[in-house]
Amino acid sequence: xxxxxxxxxxxxxxxxxxxxxxxxxxxxxxxxxxxxxxxxxxxxxxxxxxxxxxxxxxxxxxxxxxxxxxxxxxxxxxxxxxxxxxxxxxxxxxxxxxxxxxxxxxxxxxxxxxxxxxxxxxxxxxxxxxxxxxxxxxxxxxxxxxxxxxxxxxxxxxxxxxxxxxxxxxxxxxxxxxxxxxxxxxxxxxxxxxxxxxxxxxxxxxxxxxxxxxxxxxxxxxxxxxxxxxxxxxxxxxxxxxxxxxxxxxxxxxxxxxxxxxxxxxxxxxxxxxxxxxxxxxxxxxxxxxxxxxxxxxxxxxxxxxxxxxxxxxxxxxxxxxxxxxxxxx
Length: 330
Known about the structure:
Layout: H1 7-20, H2 42-45, H3 55-71, H4 77-88, H5 91-101, H6 113-126, H7 131-154, H8 167-181, H9 183-197, H10 216-227, H11 230-240, H12 268-284, H13 289-306, H14 314-317, H15 320-329
């Protein structure tokens, strides 16, 4: 594999995340104010996830840190991660995060992207050698799992946009958690995935949009790979992208151009390249050998376009290492 996760890269990513998960400002809140008393700062509203520019990026910043500590326990930075998790992932602080969900107008808070990342964080905490982190996070994970269980039956049409609202990406993360913790939610996710995407044929690959960080086509395909058996996925995929072996749609093989990394929305396109690489690598083992080789080569092209830019400007630095980690592990 041309690009792989090494201890040096992991240490670099951990250093990036440690520098921002507790950095309160600048911050973009997802916050509805119901009166003057609701004019509060990030740390007052979110005892744990007040860093990293926004709540969801802070959640997956902690996910990155716990994952790197588990994968590379010998890194010097592993002790810094442990100390931070001990200080932040406590029942008292989780209670503060839970209290936010009880506020007026909080039903759509971080739906579904932040919900899914919180479940991913809890799953990673459960894999750690410290059971108290997962125990502390469990009530918050349960709250978001319950929100998925309520929301998915009401979501009539799939959210296909390549930003935070994408439902396929959220279901990929939530399914992995649910398979370990809630089989009824896992069954719901599998069923809704087939409801939303099972009849899709001839995807035109009209992407990326100007501010997207997910490939709506490839993340949908990866979702279906996770929920279908191997023969079922092959049948579905051949109909979904019937000309892929001929290199069409061309857009799916072409990395996005990022014209301005100081613009938070345009900087999403670095994440688009990284998440595309994650998808291509995740799909490769289900493809015929020639196409699998092309998928892996295409992933490398996308990594080369954006891996050098995970740090440098805070508009990307507060989140891109997470998607680089997904891609390199993929």
